[in-house]
């Protein structure tokens, strides 16, 4: 019997990432939530069509809502359903988690920023974080630190030889 090649198997269940989140914000505390989706949205996500780059999460009436995420409908989606790719999507969270988020957002001035959208078993989950915006000098310092880390690795690699 032949061995299974683990390199060919794709274990990455990520649908979409918000790569700008860590660049534009200080990410403090991370959370995971489910999404309330319609059928055509699930089909679109299975095809890998999603964009959460310009999205954010807001709290209204004790519920969390995802705004600005784009799930473009497939051309073969049902024609009798009106597809709105930019609609508000409800996040499925426990009351305790919602109360925690409300307290931090209203009292401490945090924003809630989506980080990634992924499959967990058969469910679509969204990972998000409490975040504070970065100033321009903070962004420059992060770039400088990242470049120094790369240079340090290069120097260590060449010094070992």
Short description:
With 161 residues, the chain is α+β, with helices and mostly antiparallel strands.
Would you kindly provide a written description of the structure presented here, covering whatever features stand out?
By secondary structure, this protein is of the alpha+beta class. It has one domain: Small protein B (Small Protein B, Chain: A). The chain has four helices and seven strands. The chain has helices at residues 21-24, 39-46, 95-108, 136-160; strands at residues 14-17, 25-35, 56-60, 63-67, 89-92, 111-120, 123-133. It has a seven-stranded antiparallel beta sheet with strand order 1-6-7-2-5-4-3. Strand 6 (111-120) and strand 7 (123-133) form a beta hairpin. The radius of gyration is 20 Å and the shape is globular. Mean pLDDT is 83; it is low at 3-10. InterPro entries: SmpB (IPR023620), SsrA-bd_prot (IPR000037), SsrA-bd_prot_CS (IPR020081). Its main location: cytoplasm. It is found in: Cytoplasm.
């Amino acid at each position: 019997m032949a061995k299974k090649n683990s390199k060919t198997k794709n274990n990455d269940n990520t649908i979409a990432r918000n790569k700008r989140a860590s660049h534009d914000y200080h990410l403090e505390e991370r959370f995971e939530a489910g999404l309330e989706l319609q059928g055509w949205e699930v089909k679109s996500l299975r095809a890998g069509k999603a964009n959460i780059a310009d999205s954010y999460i807001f709290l209204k009436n004790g519920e969390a809502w995802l705004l600005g995420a784009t799930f473009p409908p497939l051309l073969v989606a049902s024609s009798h359903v009106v597809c709105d790719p930019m609609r508000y999507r409800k996040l499925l969270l426990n009351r305790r988690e919602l109360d925690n988020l409300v307290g931090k957002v209203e009292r401490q001035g945090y924003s809630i920023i989506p980080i990634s959208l992924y499959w967990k078993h058969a469910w679509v989950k969204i990972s998000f974080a409490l975040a504070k915006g970065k100033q321009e000098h903070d962004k420059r310092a992060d770039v400088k630190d990242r470049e120094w880390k790369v240079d340090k690795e290069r120097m260590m690699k060449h010094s070992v030889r």
